[in-house]
Amino acid sequence: MILTNAVIHTSDDQCPVADTVVIQDGRFEWVGHASDLPADHDLPTVDLDGRTVIPGLIDAHSHPALVAMSGWHVQLPETHSVDEVLDAIRDHGAAHPKEEAPYLYFEYFPTALLGEAGATKELLDSAISDRPVLVQDSGDHASWVNTRMLELLGVDENTPDPVPGLERFARDAGGRPTGYIFENAHAGFLPRMYEALGWTPPERPTPEIIRPVLDFLGSTGVVAVFDALIESPEVITAMRELDSRGDLHMHYEGAIRFRTLADLPEALETVAALDDDSDSSKVRVRTVKLFLDGTNELGSGAVIDPLLSEDNAGPLGAIQMELDDLVECLRLCNGAAVDLHIHMVGDRAFRTACDAVERARSQVEAEGTAWNVQVTFAHCELVDPADLARPAELGVIVNWTNHWSGGYFGEEAARHLGPHRWERMYDVAAIADAGARVTFSSDVVSAAELHRAAPFFGMQIAVTRIDPEVPLDAERFVESRRPAAAASLSLSRLLRGYTIDASVQLRIEKDYGSVSPGKLANLVVLNVDPFTTPGYDLAAVHPTAVVYRGAVVSGRLPAPR
């Protein structure tokens, strides 16, 4: 077909704006202006009546499988009252006895509501003590559990922390776990608990469970997604089953997690076993994921200058891996031709990662070997001004989660960082201004926040620095806007990061990322022009039609003539 009479923002520097495209066999055969359209085309023509069109969008860091499997979690009321949280837990337990729900998983409580000292197993026992209970914090990096859960996990004063300082159990003076857990330190003990219960969570990553999440993303204009943490090979099986049924209307990339240098070789073997490197495959696994530090809200981000609070992993936060080991990880990834995606939130983690890339690349190239590993830094919440230009210099991609740009995590990090560091967080614009390639994402992890994965919802917050759902205190912050205003992102930069730059991160730029001749015909027709829409209203921008590989997969186009 031919789509014409449109305003097409192509993300292609060779032809930034077009008004007509020719789609043939699922690809763009021609892109340009109607006045130049070759006369030999005899295809159905769709008049878009001046609508704005953009390339298919790419969510470059998300967790669709985790969202899909979170359907059994219990949502808590949004409150800063400990009593209200405990009452909600108690009431749910009374309404759903142990025989019906042998394990209860609640989300979320504000990270700073209780803190490490206050989130004790005894306090949670006062609500429910007859079965294991877990309450997840709003940052998704800390958990509060009751006595029964610790017993069934088999975690006591003799249990070592999986990663001291980072993946750890809060403990009392005698070394006994208190009930507060950092960075999913309990995850490796869950099979023991499930075996003792004779029960497993009701959700598994089946095609039927995952498809609604992918369909939602597709309806918002997403045609490719990077799943930043594959917890089970079953996820890949489910994705390939959807593809074989003709129900996968996007490209899917996944990452395998590793924790230490010692377990990286196994992760690389898993990538090799799971990946399908055929040109036609929509399901790929070619990346490993490392959590280099924790979160700034928990005081577990790795920082250059000491933290101000005492209830954290140490005066400089926590880091998963020091420089020498990280250099060796990069060398191993380069040798295996597997990319590396690194979670980091603190400025020391950022600097360590930059130093590691610089050293590893220098070593590899000095040995006469090509540097082919693609490194992406995810989050980069706090960056020392001296390091802002380093991603551009090193060829590192930076990925940012737009809907965090306002008040989503409140001011909880300020307690650890102080106001000066807190106010200069979230300035990915400065990294982009220095010339780095920046990509954007949703990073949603549960069904409760899936609606926030809509790209234009995130774009609104990135432009305004105001979260319409979780605003900062308007009496202290003008319009509830997060400082600093200079860190706001422009719509043109956001669109580029969601399209051509994200396609480079996923290594699919040959087929995705722009409306260009020869590429797959992926595009989004919008209800309004986002470039003339006030920043405060960008969340109302939505697709009226999404075309993937030349077929309408969401919404509809006008009738052709």
What does this structure look like?
Helix 8 links the parallel strand 15 and strand 16. The chain is of the alpha/beta class and 561 residues long. The radius of gyration is 24 Å and the shape is globular. It folds into 3 domains: 90 residues, Urease, subunit C, domain 1; 126 residues, Diaminopimelate Epimerase, Chain A, domain 1; 299 residues, TIM Barrel. Helix 10 crosses helix 11. The longest helix has 20 residues. The strands form 4 sheets. The chain has an 8-stranded parallel β-sheet. A 6-stranded mixed β-sheet has the order 3-2-7-22-23-24, with no helix packed on it. It is 28% helix and 20% strand.
Please write out the topology.
Layout: E1 2-4, E2 7-9, E3 17-18, E4 20-24, E5 27-32, E6 45-47, E7 52-55, E8 57-62, H1 64-68, E9 74-75, H2 82-95, E10 104-109, H3 115-118, H4 121-125, E11 133-137, E12 142-145, H5 147-153, E13 169-171, E14 177-182, H6 190-197, H7 207-219, E15 222-227, H8 233-245, E16 251-257, H9 264-274, E17 283-291, H10 323-336, E18 339-344, H11 347-366, E19 375-379, H12 390-394, E20 397-401, H13 414-423, H14 428-433, E21 438-441, H15 455-464, H16 491-498, H17 500-505, E22 523-526, E23 543-548, E24 551-555
